[in-house]
UniProtKB/TrEMBL annotation:
Organism: Corynebacterium occultum
Cofactor: NAD(+)
Location of the NAD(P)-binding domain: 4-303
Family as reported in the entry's similarity comment: Belongs to the NAD(P)-dependent epimerase/dehydratase family. dTDP-glucose dehydratase subfamily.
Protein name listed in UniProt: dTDP-glucose 4,6-dehydratase
């Protein structure tokens, strides 16, 4: 099977490529990645060149996408601008890569009749109140709150429209927050781990009561394969692993891993429009036979800390650039 993986040099995409090549001997992968600030060439280092090729290019490049599509049996579309904070400052990069890029890809997938899996996020549903017992289901109305989630919502709508109007053979998955190795230092968990490794304080936005539904990246990618193999064309599947924790609890646990007081951190400027809580009802994907394996979030966090501790060459430059941008914007708040 020849698989075109867009965004395969980023966090989730590169974990998908590694997992796919190691568990599915009948696969060959072409990664199409624009190698933005979020990508790292190290993410694909050491892979068999007979089975994995990196094409540095943009998903908005119609000719290149057409050429690669002609040689693919399956597309797994991860490529996106993925950070909420950046979307507040540079929204047009998000409409371009996330909306236009998706439309270029599904246009070509339709033309070549290639099976397409679209990677989306639970953030398209907006947020839930902290005391709301509800969780997101595939029937939850879309209500995105940030330019990032709005662009992902738009891309989902385009995929559905192409299924209905053009017979595109596509499935969509909306997953909750991922953690694990090779996540960019701009994201919450790596940022706090790297602060702690540098002997600095974790930095929590606003009150820190915001809840995210954490899932290990390998569980996400296993669910994606289950949907590709067993999902129904045109359907949307929600992926989550019952991993709800507020940001204060995550920071407390990381502090414990570093032998520090759980409550030792800085409150900094809140994110405008900061979503309160995400929570996934994953019944749609569980019904296909998938199950998360990484059920112990504390153990997963400890392993993730060890990965960052063992790979400073991977993150040092990215951290420096990210952290200096953050610190220009952030103001410390009183506790
Ligand atoms: P990431 O930022 O680590 O990686 C994105 C990759 O896409 C990068 O390698 C980047 O270079 C590439 N890219 C960006 N624009 C491109 C373009 N125009 N053409 C080609 N390549 C381009 O992001 P991630 O966290 O791995 O997220 C991957 C996907 O999963 C995204 O679609 C995101 O919306 C979705 N998702 C992420 C999470 C999460 O917790 N990180 C949760 C649910 C869904
Ligand atoms: P993030 O990793 O940006 O993911 P998302 O916005 O997609 O959920 O942030 C996760 C949570 O952590 C979110 O509530 C914002 C918060 N956060 C902090 O408190 N401090 C930080 O330094 C960052 C980057 C995020």
């Amino acid at each position: 099977m020849r698989i075109l993986v867009t965004g395969g040099a980023g966090f989730i995409g590169s974990n998908f490529v590694h997992r796919t090549l190691s568990t599915r001997p009948d696969t060959q992968v072409v990664v199409l990645d624009a190698m933005t600030y979020a990508a790292n060439p190290e993410n694909l280092a050491g892979l068999d060149p007979q089975r994995c090729r990196l094409v540095e290019g943009d998903v908005c490049d119609v000719e290149l996408v057409d050429e690669l599509m002609a040689e693919a049996d399956l597309v797994v579309h991860f490529a996106a601008e993925s950070h909420n904070d950046n979307s507040l400052h540079n929204p047009l990069a998000f409409t371009r890569s996330n909306v236009e890029g998706t439309v270029v890809l599904i246009n070509a997938a339709t033309r070549h009749d290639v099976r397409f899996h679209h990677i989306s996020t639970d953030e398209v549903f907006g947020d839930l109140a902290l005391d709301d017992p509800a969780r997101f289901t595939p029937d939850t109305p879309y209500n995105p709150s940030s330019p990032y989630s709005a662009s992902k919502a738009a891309s989902d709508h385009f995929v559905r429209a192409f299924v209905r109007s053009h017979g595109l053979r596509a499935t969509i998955s909306n997953c909750s927050n991922n953690y694990g190795p090779r996540q960019h230092p701009e994201k919450f968990i790596p940022r706090q781990i790297l602060n702690l490794l540098a002997g600095e304080e974790p930095r929590v936005y606003g009150t820190g009561e915001n809840v995210r539904d954490w899932i290990h990246v390998d569980d996400h990618n296993d669910a994606v394969w289950t949907i590709i193999e067993k999902g129904e064309i045109g359907q949307t599947y929600l992926i989550g692993a019952d991993g709800e924790h507020d940001n204060l609890a995550v920071v407390a646990e990381l502090n414990r891993v570093f032998g520090r007081e759980p409550g030792a951190f800085l409150h900094v400027t809140d994110r405008p429009g900061h979503d309160r809580r995400y929570a996934i009802d994953a019944s749609s994907t569980l019904a296909l036979g998938w199950e998360p394996r990484h059920r112990d979030f504390r153990a997963g966090l400890r392993e993730t800390v060890e990965w960052y501790r063992g790979n400073p060459g991977w993150w040092e430059r990215a951290r420096e650039a990210t952290e200096s941008a953050y610190r220009r914007r952030e103001v410390q708040l009183p506790k």
